[in-house]
Amino acid sequence: MSCGGCSGAVTKALSKLEGVDKFDVSLANQKVTVDSTTLTETEILSAIQKTGKTAKVAGQ
C-alpha cells in the first residue's frame, strides 16, 4: 500500500467481509492485521487481493 486510496480500498473490502472481528490497516507500516475466528487466512488474503493489492501472511 502506497497511498490513502490503497489503504481505503483494503479497509472497505475488510469492512464488508463477514466474519472479520477487527482489523487495523497501517499505511505507514504497510501492514494489515486481521482478527477473525471464522475466516481462514486464504479467505482474508483473497478479499485483500481482490482490491488489486498484493497480500501475504507475515513471515511467508
Care to describe what's here?
There is one protein chain. The chain is α+β, with helices and mostly antiparallel strands and 60 residues long. The chain has one domain: Alpha-Beta Plaits, CATH 3.30.70.100. The chain is built from two helices and two strands. The protein has a two-stranded antiparallel sheet with strand order 1-2. Strand 1 and strand 2 form a beta hairpin. The longest helix has 13 residues. It is globular. It starts with a helix and ends in an 11-residue tail after the last helix. 13% of the residues are buried. The mean pLDDT is 90. One of its GO terms (biological process) is copper ion transport. Belongs to the ATX1 family. This is HMA domain-containing protein. GO terms for molecular function: copper chaperone activity; metal ion binding. InterPro entries: Copper_transport_ATOX1-like, HMA_dom, HMA_dom_sf.
Average predicted confidence as pLDDT: 90
Physical arrangement of strands within the biggest beta sheet: 1-2
Number of H- or I-type helical stretches: 2
SSE order in H/E notation? HEEH
